[in-house]
Amino acid sequence: MFNFYLLECTYYVYLGIEYQSGKKEFFKMEISQLAAIISRLDGMIKEQSDEVQSRRFEKDGRELGVISYDKETDTFILEELADKQKFEFDNIDLAAMEIYDLLND
Question: Each residue of 10-25: pLDDT tens digit?
């Protein structure tokens, strides 16, 4: 018999296994940058507050974008700070891909 534990962090997932003998092992697995972005966006959707949720995205200490989620309209709005452009998404995957592109350009 095994017990499994899954702990998620921003860039890693830790998988823990507890064997019947009581021995425990933990494995650190790197998750993709895209999966980490989706996790942050999903957290915005699940937030219990009725206020608009916002998250900032940085690379090497430079803030590149701010994304907001409005529960009322079920939309994400991404503002790219360098050129002040705004993009609206009604799909978490499309929003995540745009953030990924922003961070990796």
Answer: 555 555 666 667 777 7
Please classify residue 32 by burial: count the beta carbons closer than 10 Å to its beta carbon, then call 0-12 exposed, 13-18 middle and 19+ buried: exposed
Q: What are phi and psi of 37, to 5 degrees?
A: -65, -45
Q: What is the pTM of this model?
A: 0.69
Contact residues for 67 (Cβ-Cβ < 8 A; gap 6+): 41, 44, 54, 55, 57, 76, 77, 78, 79, 95, 99
Nearest CA to 89 among 102, 104, 70, 105?
A: 70
Please report, for the chain, the start and end positions of each structural domain, with discontinuous segments joined by +: 1-31, 32-104
Helix (H) or strand (E) holding 17: strand 12-19
CATH 3.30.720.20 fits 32-104, yes or no: yes
